[in-house]
Amino acid sequence: MEEPQKIVVIGSGMGGLVTALILAKHGYQVKVLEKNHQIGGSLQVFSRDKRIFDTGVHYVGGLDKGENLYQIFKYLNIMDDLDLHRMDENAFDVIRLSNGQVIKHGMGYANFEKKLKESFPNNHQDIENICQEIRLYCSYFPLYNLELDSEINYIENSVVLEVGAWERLAALTDNEDLIKAVLGSGPLYAGIKGITPFYVMALILNSFIKGSYRFVNGASQIAKILMKRISEHGGEVLRRKEVVSVTYDEAGCIRSVICADKSEFVCDSVISNLHPTETIAIVGESNFKNPFIKRLKSLPNTVSSFMMYISFEENKFPYFNSNFYDYFTDNIWDEEFHFSEEWPQMTFTSAQVSKNTDEFAESISIMCYLDIKELKAWEDSVRTVVVEGERHVDYEEFKDVCVERILKRIETRFPGIRAHIKNVYSSTPITYRDYIATPGGSMYGFQKDFNQIHKSQINTRTHVPNLYLTGQNIIFHGILGATIGALVTSFNFVDNKEVIEKIKNYD
């Protein structure tokens, strides 16, 4: 009997785990190597005061029955084991502008339109046109719609990639507050005026309109269930295995990967879930063409964030089943990423769902944009569960200043919140950098720019014959983006028609 091909997957983020499971289901001998103690990348959680806090994923879209992520999760045999909580169908997201206007995003397009029309009664036709445009752009991406091909697609109509989100909406309405209302959830993709493509906004917003859910007691359950399924198909997920180098054979293919603890894994192919520049640093720049290296190094990454985590006194602060995007500036897509006197100009607030109570919130997470350059004084320090490095006292003092700034901001939108706080915890862009291994602590990898969209398009195949890429940089970010990227990567090894047919017809 022929030996199954050995596949090593570097990194246990969503893209790495999904790719590994698909290949394991098809008979490949898969090993996933994770540098941290906890698997899952941005799916990781931590516990304080007997409360669970999500570090990167606070809600997910496309999970209503029959929608794209729902069908993929059914195919992966993880959907039925997930403990999910459907968000407020009349206000899964709430956008609160600096002028006091409050706009709610409803689930389902009829409801989404209805809620926007309630806030903008004089712009009914504009709202209908905007929603029609969002759905039209989504139709240009076959795999997003669980198809391998379609009559209209972005490959033959690449102009759809070269349209700006803010710019397209400005052509559909002259009501700037309506534009802000639609783009108010821009922190989901680090939206920036003059840079972010309309298609990125459309694909992501559409998925949340099609079913928004929170994870009861944290998103790490996805990683744990995926790991269990990988194991059931003969694969392994190994922790504390930081890949630091590779060896090559005479044909220029990777023969093995070597970890920091000197362990070595011989393989037939390698799939990296790391950021592409991190991958190249491990496997060696000399194995890639100079123009490719220069292109990757020239690409800007999306911004990072400062995270604040609040645990509440028991049964004190009411649970809210919506996410709040609060703006303290009129220029919602021109926010200041640096630590200026006006920072923070935006806060994203999400409550953690708990099994213990559905009336009160045990904890919430608050995210604010922050450039990692603001932490230059501590950039050489590294601290994770595995690497117990030290930060300086002034680093903690800086964090305390940030926390107080954020508290003052959210008190204006959540009056009385401070009185119910038990403890406050925080993390910075260098925390995210250390745990997730993204340059600059970037939340979403490479920044997509409609002015030069082809520069940030990354192929799953590389110049090394048996090295492949997966993760959020392949298609777009988030759980859905990384999952679809994993499908694309797996198609280098399995029959794409067979897989898509099974996903579409899975009941």
Describe what you observe in this structure.
With 507 residues, the protein is of the alpha/beta class. The protein has a domain at 6-43 and 56-80 and 218-298 and 445-505: FAD/NAD(P)-binding domain (3-Layer(bba) Sandwich). 30% of the residues lie in helices and 18% in strands. The chain contains 14 helices and 19 strands. The chain has helices at residues 14-25, 68-75, 109-119, 124-138, 165-172, 176-183, 198-209, 220-232, 276-283, 290-298, 393-411, 429-436, 478-490, 496-505; strands at 6-10, 29-33, 45-48, 51-54, 84-86, 93-96, 102-105, 213-215, 236-238, 243-248, 254-259, 264-266, 269-272, 305-312, 323-327, 346-351, 363-369, 421-427, 467-469. It has a 7-stranded mixed beta sheet, sandwiched between helices. It has a 5-stranded parallel beta sheet with strand order 9-2-1-13-19. A hairpin with a 5-residue loop joins strand 10 (243-248) and strand 11 (254-259). The longest helix is centred in the last third of the chain and has 19 residues, at 393-411. The chain is globular, with a radius of gyration of 22 Å. The mean pLDDT is 93. It is an enzyme of class 1 (oxidoreductase). It comes from Fluviicola taffensis (strain DSM 16823 / NCIMB 13979 / RW262). This is All-trans-retinol 13,14-reductase.
